[in-house]
Amino acid sequence: MVADGLDDFYKLHQFKPSKEDAVTYFLPRLLAGPPLPHGADRLIRHADVYACEPKDLAAEYAPVPLAVSIGDRFFFTTCKHKRGSDTRIARVAGAGTWAVQKTENVYHKGGKIGEVKHLSFKKGKVSTGWVMEEYRCLLPEAVFAGGEKVLCKIHLAPNACTAARQESAAYKLRQERAEPAPAPQAETVTASARTQKRPAPVSAAADTPCSKKMRMAASVPTSDDEEHEDCPVWFTPAAPVSLPAASTEVHHEPEADDDMGRFSCTMEELLRVQQQEQTLPVEAEEQLDFDWESIDPVDLLRPWDDDWES
To answer: Rounded distance, CA 61 to CA 63, Å?
Structure first.
């Protein structure tokens, strides 16, 4: 599996070439230009190590996998000759200098094929805790006018101080700034949670058990506002219907027909009946009168059947 151009080979095996491999294998292929196997091009950076201090390189480039504690970083760079000299190399970098500690020859099949220079980065006469191995080959294509192409390995010294180790870990700050902030996750609300968060209606919480008659009496609204008072927020009562204005003209109802006509009469007919009642003959009124006082109460108790006595 390839991730960012680097496969699992160098994720599981530390990139730590020997001096013979650096001179006979990696450096010639870097000069020729073809890609290196297993994505090793991602581990060897093209940068000028003499243009800045080691702490600046450490802040820009991370160490190779499985070498974070010692801070191994590999660079394919150029060693420039000092002005007016064809052999001496200018090793000033920023406010310090790469001082050569020793030089070691590299042999292959009984012949010299290159050399390794061990250097220490110092400011004045004080070592900063950074060291470097500079691999050089004897191939003619490595040399050009004014300088030479080399492979460098910069790392921390075994007795490096705390300040140098903090400088080696400065790349983490750059990675944190480069990583995008995680997108906010959308809140997922389940149906059960939504049901729990919904407040109960006030009327349902305040009502107490009551009889059917009381519930019927309480359910009769007295006005439109009271009728829709307990409705949810999303409920909107129907808009009032505007009726046409009532006409002020008095319409005379037609007279009742058929059966209803028998119960209606005019004012003249009503007055005529009253006059007739007042003008009835006195005899008729006397005939209608009955003298209840002349009757003996004992007679009322007797049976009306005359055969009953016999």
So the answer is: 7
Q: What is the pTM of this model?
A: 0.56
pLDDT digits (tens, 9 = 90+) for 12-65: 788 899 999 999 999 999 999 888 888 888 899 999 999 999 999 999 999 998
